[in-house]
Amino acid sequence: MSDTVETATAAPGTPPEKTPAPAGALERLRRPRTYLWLVGSVLLLAFPFYLDRFWLQAGLFAMAAAIGAIGINLLTGATGQLSMGHAFFLAVGAYSYCVLAGESSTENGHALTGLGLPTWLAAILAVLLAGVAGGVFSPIAGRLRGAYLGIATLALIFIGQHVLFNAGSLTGGFNGRPVPPLSVFGFTFDDTEVLVAAVPFQSSEKLWYVALLALLLSGLFARGVLRGRPGRALNAIRDHRIAAGVMGVPVARYRAGVFVLSSMYAGLAGVLLALVFQRTVPEYFGMILSLEYLAMIVIGGLGSVAGAVVGAAFVSLMPQVLTHYSDSLPLVSAPGTGGLAPGEASRYLYGAAVVAVVLFLPGGLTRLKKPGEKK
Amino acid sequence: MTTFIELLLGGLSIGSVYALIALGFVVIFKATEVVNFAHASLLLAGGYVTAVLHDDIGFWPALGVGIAGAAVVGAGVEFFVMRRYRGSDHSVLAIVTIGVDIILVTELTRRMGTDVMALGDPWGDDVVTIGGVTLAETRIAAFLVAGLLITVFLLAFRFTSWGVSMRAAAENPQTAALMGIKLGRVSLSAWAVAGALAAVAALFLTVFPTPGLERATSLAALKAFPAAILGGLDSTTGALAGGLIVGVTESLATGYQSDLSFLGRGIGDLAPYLVMVIVLLVRPAGLFGTKELARV
């Protein structure tokens, strides 16, 4: 295989973390990386106390996107299965949560069906349902490879859009439907203010910790998958499917499995996004969303959890940053004033970033700092 | 019955346009093994150039410039992006074309705004009625032009030295290179041809009865993907068959929409993808695609 793939699979930078515990503890204290993590976690935990709602929302989007990106990186990055249908599974997650947790109601003349389950249960079931949707698609996913799979999954987007617009009683059609706020053990993550250390906590502040926890858990789980036996099997399938099969990797089972797993990640991301948006609309879950997720993992780095997170932060924070500073940036101006709208500017930037990263930094942004590693 | 024939003929005509797009897609895939997700943006580029110029220099010259422009854009993408990639993973290259597509589509839609641009074609909304069956002139023109171009292309593919080198490169790039075929030139010409075909398709996707060139045109162009896939990505015959199947399916599903109302509104846009999924379930390599045989 090519040298780029080689470095991605071997990932020589990572093994030190797996050194045995006694020597590792001291070793870790000496590495700058440990402190970076420490400072990073403190910052992430402290953000809700200092940032305003705009940036918290942006951060929440980024975290939800990161979870989805981890999912598609397992599938496309680690296993080499191109999927354009990620947005569909996000939609399954988001809408399942709404249907399961919402109460039956009428809105704008639309009757909305809702099962009224406890919201935490609905969230879990929504993730499982996204997995089931992935499993239902596995007869296709297990048979097709490469470009065929990519375009077949494109069908999911169009099927999804069709259902979202037409199944009015479940999805609310064009106008979407409201998202019931999450509540766990009687604590509701909605806009009622709670004072924590003299800082009023609203939905974004509260959800911040939910998202952080979800991201941490899903990141650790994916890392476990990638570093263990399944991860090696997935990489083997990507690098040489037939050789992997000959060596005893149950290729079909793993491919179906990773498809289901990645759909579940998408489902979780969808639930979080719905909670942040507080309203789900079908237009959001279109093809552009799928393309954004592919852009994320290419920019961040294919096949690693860190790559997915970095890429997700890059792609989803960019429009927000550009919007916020559109006054002071050259070329960019508010939408409708003739200049480059922030949304467009960010699309140029990440389109160009995808091209530039593949051509000049085949490992993605997360491998930026180790040029010596390449060959 | 008349409705059925009208829908069938209309479907065949729009299907031949899809076949034109799918053909370019297949040519790029054969020559370089890259799935070009930027194809819709090539089409949009060709259509945009024609739409902008037709007022000043007349329709036919504008169309010529549009075709040449799309070919140049295609060749440019190959020369400045695809050729610079040093790895060997073709699915990564496919994602690169997505990046290119994002840039091109953003630029073109920003220029278009919410306008619906006319391409200034000479047919207008004239219709021809033969034995009770009414057809738009544009549809007939589309069918004839697409048929002609596809024939010319297939003949060239078969008999000219360009076609031979293209097929040799598709068959076995290393051997072809050793025989003195310049692979760079082959893939450059593949991209240019694909761009040119897409520009012609852009004309027929935007003439009557569709309102004109707009943002949504790239969505229509996307239907060439299921066409190419269900025919088989590496088969020119497949592109042809796939295009016609997609066109007819779409036309019939749209025409009989009221009878299919239990499936929801806008089933016509969905039908090509459903057909694709069903075909792929039965034949994972498409109707005419070569099944991959691997030697270990």
From TrEMBL, chain A:
Membrane topology: Multi-pass membrane protein
Annotated region (Disordered), positions in chain: 1-23
Key words, A-Z: Cell membrane, Membrane, Transmembrane, Transmembrane helix
Record bears the keyword Transmembrane: yes
GO cellular component: plasma membrane
Pfam families reported in the protein's UniProt record: BPD_transp_2
InterPro entries linked: ABC_transp_permease, LivM-like
Molecular function terms from GO: branched-chain amino acid transmembrane transporter activity
Protein's cellular compartments: Cell membrane
Domain of life: Bacteria
Transmembrane domains' residue ranges: 34-51, 57-75, 87-105, 117-140, 147-165, 207-226, 262-281, 293-318, 348-368
Matching CDD domains: TM_PBP1_LivM_like (cd06581)
Keyword Zinc-finger assigned: no
UniProt-listed PANTHER family: ABC TRANSPORTER PERMEASE PROTEIN (PTHR30482:SF5), HIGH-AFFINITY BRANCHED-CHAIN AMINO ACID TRANSPORT SYSTEM PERMEASE (PTHR30482)
UniProt protein name: Branched-chain amino acid ABC transporter permease
Species: Streptomyces fulvorobeus
Upper lineage: Bacteria, Bacillati, Actinomycetota, Actinomycetes, Kitasatosporales
Automatic annotation (TrEMBL), chain B:
Pfam families: BPD_transp_2 (PF02653)
Keyword Iron: no
Compartment annotation: Cell membrane
Domain of life: Bacteria
Bilayer-spanning residue ranges: 6-27, 59-80, 92-109, 140-157, 188-208, 270-290
Keywords for this protein: Amino-acid transport, Cell membrane, Membrane, Transmembrane, Transmembrane helix, Transport
Membrane topology category: Multi-pass membrane protein
A biological process term (GO) from this entry: amino acid transport
GO molecular function, a single term: transmembrane transporter activity
GO cellular component: plasma membrane
Family: Belongs to the binding-protein-dependent transport system permease family. LivHM subfamily.
Protein name (record): Branched-chain amino acid ABC transporter permease
Organism in which the protein naturally occurs: Streptomyces fulvorobeus
Lineage: Bacteria, Bacillati, Actinomycetota, Actinomycetes, Kitasatosporales
